[in-house]
Amino acid sequence: MKSINRRQAALFLLCIPLIAFWKILFAQPDYSFFTSNDAAQHWYPWYQYIARWMHVGFLPLWDTDLQSGRPLLGEMRPGVLYPLNLIFFRLFSVKDGIGLLPMDLYIVSEVVLASLFQYRLARHLSLSRFASLLSAVVYGYSGYVVENATWQIAIFNGVIWLPLLVLLFLRAGGARTGIERAFWLLSSGVVFGVIVLAGHVQPPVHAALSLALVAFYPGFWPGFRQSAFAGVGRSAMRLGACLVTGAIVASPQLLVALEYGRRSLRWLGWDDLAPVAGMGRIPYAWGGHFERSHFQDVFTAVNPGTWAGSDYFGAAPILLAVVAFLLASGAGVRLFKVLLILSILLCLGELSIFHGPLYQLIPLMDKVRQPSRAIFLVHFSIATLAGFGADVLGRSLRAREKRAHHQLALILVWVSSFSAALICVAGMLAVLLKGTSMTDERLEWTLRFSFLLLVSATIFYFRQIGRLRLGTFRVFLLAVVAFDLFSFFSYAILSRYGYNNKNNFFPEIHYARNEAVDFLKQKARGSLFRVEVVEDALPPNSGMVHGYQEITGGMATGLADYHRFRGLDTGPHSVIPRLLNRRYLVSRSVIPGFDEVVHGPPKVFEDRNALPRATWMPGAIVLDSWDSVADALRRPEFDPRAAVLVTPEQSTSIPRDLLVSGPRPNPESAHDYVRVTAFEPDRISLSCDAPRKGIVLLSELVYPGWLAMIDGARVPVITANCLLRAVVVEKGRHTIEFVYRPRLFRTALGASLAVFLLTGILGVFLLITRLPRHQAKP
Q1: What is the b/e burial string over 299-323, where b = at least 16 CB atoms within 10 angstroms of the residue's CB?
Q2: Where are the domains of the chain?
Q3: CATH class (in words) of the domain with range 615-620+656-740
Q4: For residue 261, which phi and psi values (nearest 5 degrees)?
Q5: Which residues touch 166 (CB under 8 Å, ≥6 apart)?
Q6: What is the tens place of the pLDDT at every residue in 665-724?
Q7: What is the largest distance, in Å, between two alpha-carbon atoms of the chain?
């Protein structure tokens, strides 16, 4: 068979999405990647919110629509500063957010990137173009990558970059000059920073573990052969340079996330576990022991019948990896053999003594939580070893190798046949005897896997005994891999049909507009207010999708003080939501005491006693502690318009003539003395005409980074009523502005951009110096 050239390889990698993603490309109105609960209820709302603001020229750093406001960069998962997200939002955002088709095509393009990166890594490891293509297909269209493409988008955005990260780091080790080495180390650091900016903690942790293995693996670095001590030192310096560069690149995100982490709670995903502090360490009893499906998760990557929708690697790639493990040699294949063994031990969690010490010793390992997530490293190893295995079977064998290879091929056929028969019989008996929860559908996947396992082993056998030419073998092998993986991946892309209404997360159905949503959208165009959703009357985070602000909403994290404040009194008539400018309640049933303005379903009720977004107050009452303020807020006689409540610490910023011993009537507050003139995620402008000296209370949360200015002059922000912003104003007309400027954000952003710029300059310099110099004709 004629060898594959570079253009054919590139064309193949760019064309296979037409087959793998036919549902998205040709039947998109009925199919989407954003159909799981996390993708639909987290990333879809986030993307709508970010795109809506970027369409009008703002990159939002503050989330106005969820839980009364919180730092958007604090929750890393939206990936606000992820470079591909920024390009995507800038190109495809529209007035109402972003369409579902561009979002799905974005996922397709990233899968193509993942396969291209793996192809380049395989070529660097000296694999043939065919083996590199097969490795690229396995990495991009199977396992952990495709599973997260339909579930955890932030994880998916991070894992696509690992092959490129390892490739650049390896090139740094083989650089011939200091400038070249600096360029490759900077490039690998930039890619590591991009993995962090993608938004999830798991890919950076796994990427750092992979880099550490590559850095200290003796087979790649000449220095180890000369002096082990010096080799370790140089490897540590390379690894440190890469990770530090990545931290600088991601610092605009990391600094805000660290600030938020100290002030937030994190829910662990299990209803019977209490939330932990955002920066608190997750105990090993939860992260290593609680989820006891580690071995099952590893096994489902081999046989999807045990859990359809798993990290399935494919039958042929698994056998190819076995061939490579037993017969391939060289530094590259030895590295991935070690990575495979270590990652499997890591996946087993508490069932492996290897996992516990790493959980305790490696920073952020506890944030990964489920040990089974290390299946990503197994996936990376299998994809690369499959390429090595394809080359082993594709090369011409010497006479002394033929006997060993023939025996191995025969063993694979017998083992595969026995495994296929055992899996089929066990699966059918389990269903017949009702001894398992395996459904008929999962049994079908088990039978399918068994068949493909047997077919793959048979192809290997006939290749080894010389009955298949190299060209025919490659065609058959690629056909089996493509049929296996593309069929499974296509099966995982769900449609708008076939669900009951409760579990249908197809975004255009899940967030379908109704009379209540239309009413709230219309009201939000002309005024500022917040909405409380009770009884799950609307899907979580509907406000971010449709463009109105909520005091409710559900994510994995939340501000600790806010949840403490909301928990003071959860009743609908409480002063707590009224202080937060909660004007409308959405409910399935009647809520007494409120005006029903939309009859639904769901119903919408108006709270006419809610405070406006900004209110002028005549004075402040000083109470001795936060708890005392909270107790006063809960009392029925408390009038939220009479005065603000502050602690002694906050009273130092208030003039003595505004400090009152008790509430007093405030007839002026009924007048429109303060109004909001501009409201953006990171800037709020007020116009105030105060009848006398007083306090302006803003129904927004106090948070580090929010600054206040009156007529252009900086003034202190006072924490009033437990956690709301307030400023002192003099009599007369004033312009008040609140601006969100996270601490050190601009400095970190400048440093991040400087690293990008320096890397680009070095790349251009190396490119110019390598250009062929044509000698002048005599």
Answers
A1: ebbbbbbbbbbbbbbbbbbbbbbbb
A2: 264-510, 615-620+656-740
A3: mainly beta
A4: -60, -35
A5: 121, 210, 211, 214
A6: 555 554 579 999 999 999 999 999 999 999 999 999 999 999 999 999 999 999 999 999
A7: 102
